[in-house]
Amino acid sequence: TKILAVSVGGVDDQNRWIGDIETFGGSSVGYPIIADHDLTISKAFDMLPAEAYLPEKPTPADTQTVRSVFIIGPDKKLKLSMTYPMTIGRNFAEVLRALDALQASTRLNLAMPVNWEVGQDVIVPVAVSTDDAKAKYGAVEEIFPYLRRVKFPA
């Protein structure tokens, strides 16, 4: 998994921002940051409306955009997106939990229930028969005909 950031500020703004993150967050920024001063990327990914623009001399209020998290799979398709407004901090534990769930569900052909974390029981997708699930994963707990749970395969 690789991280990439997009900032609508210029390179000088980004360098100051990296320093602020390292000072406040206590860790280094070891990932690339794309300068999107013309908003091309922000608009292409629907983070900003098509009519959005930055004035010639933007203020901090002008560069306050939504902060979006995208998880894009190896097939280059969007797998998940979460958008946080400026007034809400991002939950990196949730981003990592979602990434773990996406990777596990893809690898195992299983579904992850709400608040799932690695090692917890998982859901058999409705497209998989109970007999096939038993053959592949062992014991199947049938809660409803459409909701069946198995132990997380190690």
Mass-distribution shape = elongated
Q: SSE order, as H and E?
A: EHEHEEHEHEE
Radius of gyration: 21 Å
Task: State the separation between the terminal residues, measured CA to CA.
Answer: 21 Å
Can you characterise this structure?
The protein has 154 residues and is of the alpha+beta class. Helices cover 29% and strands 19% of the residues. The protein has four helices and seven strands; from the N terminus they run βαβαββαβαββ. The chain has helices at residues 11-25, 40-44, 92-108, 130-137, and strands at residues 5-7, 33-35, 67-72, 78-84, 122-124, 141-144, 147-150. A three-stranded antiparallel beta sheet has the order 5-7-6, with helices on one face. A two-stranded parallel ribbon has the order 1-2. A two-stranded antiparallel sheet has the order 3-4. β3 (67-72) and β4 (78-84) form a beta hairpin. The longest helix has 17 residues, at 92-108. The chain is elongated. The chain starts with a strand and ends with a strand.
